[in-house]
acetylornithine transaminase (Pisum sativum), 382 residues
Amino acid sequence: MAGSFISMISYLVTICLPICYNNALSVSVIFFLKLMQVELAKRLVGSSFADRVFFSNSGTEANEAAIKFSRKYQKHTCTEGKAPATEFIAFSNCFHGRTMGAVALTSKVQYRTPFEPVMPGVNFIEYGNAPAAVELIQQGKIAAVFVEPIQGEGGIYSATKEFLQSLRNACDEAGTLLVFDEVQCGLGRTGHLWAHEAYGVFPDIMTLAKPLAGGLPIGAVLLTERVASSIKYGEHGSTFAGGPLICNVALAVLNKISKPNFLSDVSKKGLYFKELLKQKLGGNPHVKEIRGVGLIIGIDLDVPASPLVDACRNSGLLILTAGKGNVVRLVPPLIITEQEIEQAADILSQTLHVLDANNSKCDDFASMLSLYVRRVCGYFAI
Ligand SMILES: Cc1ncc(COP(=O)(O)O)c(C=O)c1O
């Protein structure tokens, strides 16, 4: 369809002023550029287990949609006279977002308790404890199991193949859905386009966000046809999700990161980074473990990592904490060079001494103030 249109929809009331002086033209351009969304959905489907895609604006919204889709699927497939499964399983150290459903699935109590009561029916099980999860799934009340193949915010913990496979088998037997949250670990970060590819275990639903549009707000829920066919048109939706600009950017990102050479480079750089860190930091008594895969790496410390975060920042290196504040989280851009990796490892090794008891005391006003500001900001943003 081509030509111009007189709009009585203002692109679902989001446009109060025309983008150009011909309102009809601008609106028709936006309306039909929805085709970008279709292109992006096709690319996501073509490169994954999924048959259908729902777009959102963030990771938490993607998980919120996955919660709704799981509930709807259970209602749709439930045999007559039986109550549909409505509960969920999530795991220790997990993070799924901050909206009311996603925060209910998030294990850190400080994110949940200020807003209770949150969505009921979430069962937390220790990450990796397959027998406990299987036992609960077999009881038939679980609509879906939410799991990060590699936990980011929780402290860079990787699932084992046995754990994910046990979840998959138990879900298949009980009619429970398996949801992989790859908001942080997906899209090339592990050296695979999808983190779960390394395990050969596939979900019914996968949620994505963060890097998909190179930093612009987007989220996506990838679903099998079996799940998607239980959702009727209009049962869930979003005004801004999957807009043409963002989808176009996401297509460019996806085209670049899904190239085999790009992904194998991420793997190589990740191995090199981990090896360097082991060489340079491994002997330090505060370093308990260096773990992770590809370019999602954690340095587990026996003390809080915050003095190291400050010292690295003062030396030109930006790092994050994870876990209970004792894990250094390294999630560099996937285009980082080997030289930059070497610089980062050098700065970490040169600043590590701040973790020694005497140095880590906040004995001057400036460092106490910096700690306070970071804690306040950290409360609102990861
Ligand atoms: C695994 C995981 N899921 C969900 C989210 C929430 O994403 P967003 O901040 O885009 O809502 C995050 C954010 O850090 C995350 O790491």
Remarks:
- The two ends are 44 Å apart (CA to CA).
- The chain has two domains: 33-257, 260-380.
- Residues 260-281 form the longest helix (22 residues).
